[in-house]
# Entry
Amino acid sequence: MSDHEYVPKSKFGKWFNDRLPLLSLGNHLADYPTPKNLNYWWTFGGILTFCLIIQIVTGLTLAMHYIAHADFAFESVEHIMRDVNYGWLIRYIHSNGASMFFLAVYIHIFRSLFYGSYKSPREIIWIIGIIIYLLMMAAAFMGYVLPWGQMSFWGATVITNLFSAIPFVGEGIVQWLWGGYSVGNPTLTRFFTLHYLIPFLILGLVALHIWALHVPGNNNPIGIDVKKPSRDTVPFHPYIVIKDGFALLMFMIVFAFFVFYSPNILGHADNYIEANPMVTPAHIVPEWYLLPFYAILRSIPDKLMGVVAMLSAILILAALPWLDTSKIRSAVFRPLYKQFYWILVADVIILGYVGAMPAEGLYLLIARVTTAYYFIHFLMILPILGFKEKTLPVPLSITEPVLGSHPNQSTVKKKENLN
Amino acid sequence: MSEKKTERREFLFTASYAVGAVGVGAVIWPLVDQMNPDASVKALASTEVDVSSVELGKAITVLWRGKPVFIKRRTPEEIVEARAVKMEDLKDPQKDEDRAKDPEWLVMLGVCTHLGCVPLNDKGDYNGWFCPCHGSHYDTSGRIRKGPAPTNMEIPKYEFVNSNTIIIG
# Structure
């Protein structure tokens, strides 16, 4: 906003902008100098904003027909599916939208891990992102309870019981969460309220996330500091807008595939059975996006320690900027980190897979090994790697390797490696 | 003189903070406490069950406070098995005699103490119950023998009103 003096062209615009500088803000966003080498992994921020808006719009419309009461919730969801005009469409967009949201957020997070986007000076952006991710999980979990099917009910029972692991006060906290002695109507109504609230909290945090991003500017694939504006940057509009728009279109094709061709593939058939407090489904699994953490929970044979490990697995991410001791951001110049990065990706995928399988025999063993590795990666490999690793030479600017008048041997070599 | 003034000021600050903190707490408490079980939930605290139709070796499940309660009429073999267990083999040592007042009738909350699923009857490695969620095994006394659950299944407060009727709660 204070990057340069902006004066609206029209007289009214000038009058308005002097009183509320909205046009300056718009100009700041449109002209914002962005590194010119951003690749498609950088388009997921825009995609995530789109996902949030889709969830809010479809959620608002679903709330016009949904009844948050243990006796009517299941029926009202069926009513939405069968009777409400386009109710099936809106609900399928909302339920698959949650999965798409997590798909995009995982790509976004792993993008940051690869290119070191969490490192100084972007720690606050990263931590706000982790808070958003936590809120997303809370919103998704509570949203999944609302249809009041068997998975809703027992998912809610298992997750709220996690709090009973807390010594002394656990039982009291769980009853406070339930508003009773088990998951029931009071639980449903409060989950509905909070499920409605959280997306707006996320919206506020997204504004802070972007605000914090606009202080240092975007990280970029080679992870060096970029002077802005300079030969290394392009204005956000139209360059990034077009690129983001194209990626969004591709993403929407995938989204549409799920909504129109396999809207239930990511759900569980058991959730089309109404909640029954007397019978637990034979195999309780959370939604796919929570499976890695579920695997960590189950891999520890002690209740309290299982819960502690699961929460630590998420919260450890917030400490990442200080656990990773390397000064080089991008994995492009960190040959060892790059390998460990892909091992971590595989580790998390395996965790997700065993999280969906019964916790016994070989699956349990694999879950334990991968859980241990997850923590070793963050607590041992990353801190040590920063000191031991021999990194590749980093170019001085984004432009240098391409247009530099004095070709720098090392950067030219690096360029060849990249291709 | 000036020292006295500073003391007075500090006292006023401390007093203001204290009153402020009490005020904030008094406002927040109702907002927190409204989430606790309400009067209508607490009012449903006891259930009467007719057990005359339960055959030997069978179990019924009734709902009490929104939770399932297992009422199992145990066979002599099951009772012997439950009573023969050595205390040092138990994760949460408890005598069967303390869990079943009348050895034939085991009345307990059908809620796994791990994360609250309903265990399955006549399953698992100890001929008692098995929780399908995370694999906890319970014996014929409902005591935890294997798996992640920390404690035995809970015994609610109950009473035989006559030989056919139990009041739970």
Chain B touches chain A at residues 32, 35-38, 41, 61, 63, 65-68, 114-118, 131-135, 147-150 (CB under 8 Å). The mean pLDDT of chain B is 90. Strands of chain B lie at 47-50, 59-64, 67-73, 105-109, 120-121, 129-131, 136-138, 144-146, 158-162, 165-168.
